[in-house]
Specification:
mainly beta, 6-stranded parallel β-sheet, 31% strand
Length: 196
């Protein structure tokens, strides 16, 4: 419990062809881009729950999960990535992907299978999921709901962020981001500039 990152990946940071599988577990209430006097709680946690923190730094991406560089994350079996936050208090361009931040080539993949990405918040874009050049699959009665983009805790101009309350998808150089939502829901999300 009580996970936080000074920069990216408040709950989990996965990169360079790494593989993470989360089955029926929780990555909840974590913060990327944080600073405070609080200590990071370490050690093995029962039921793989990563819960409850609030604090700020210059900024970070992927409040719950940061995934990049041909890495793979599988979220399945009723798992939850809920209530996480990505901040950009230093106006650095960070603060994207409140729940999940995914960037890289088409082989950089996040699969959400029968699980939820709900109630996450991003200072900038992608309240639930932020994807650039990678692949995101939302399938088998999954939910990306009640997320918020454009929280603006850093007091920067709203013009810098606030797109994709549920999912933000963009290209990364020659790599086209792809999001595939099948038999699932993306509902009741909020964005400062546009909703998704």
């Amino acid at each position: 419990n009580n996970n936080k990152a000074d920069q990216d990946g408040g709950g989990i940071y996965n990169t360079d062809q790494g593989q993470v599988t989360i089955t029926g577990a929780y990555v909840n209430d974590n913060v990327a881009g944080a600073f405070s006097a609080h200590d990071v709680t370490g050690g093995a946690l029962p039921n793989a729950c990563l819960n409850d923190i609030v604090f700020y730094a210059d900024g970070g991406d992927g409040g719950g999960i940061f995934n990049s560089n041909e890495a793979d994350v599988m979220i399945q079996g009723g798992a939850a990535v809920n209530g996480n936050s990505a901040y950009d208090t230093g106006d650095t361009g960070a603060g994207n992907g409140g729940g999940i931040f995914n960037t890289g080539t088409g082989t950089t993949t996040v699969t959400i299978d029968g699980s939820t990405v709900n109630g996450n918040m991003a200072d900038r874009d992608g309240g639930g999921v932020w994807n650039s050049g990678g692949m995101v699959y939302v399938q088998n009665a999954s939910g990306v709901n009640d997320n918020t983009a454009g929280m603006n805790t850093g007091n920067f101009s709203a013009a810098f962020g606030g797109d994709g309350g549920g999912i933000f998808n963009t290209s990364n150089g020659a790599n086209t981001g792809q999001v595939d939502v099948t038999s699932s829901e993306v509902n009741c999300n909020n964005a400062q500039r546009s909703n998704a």
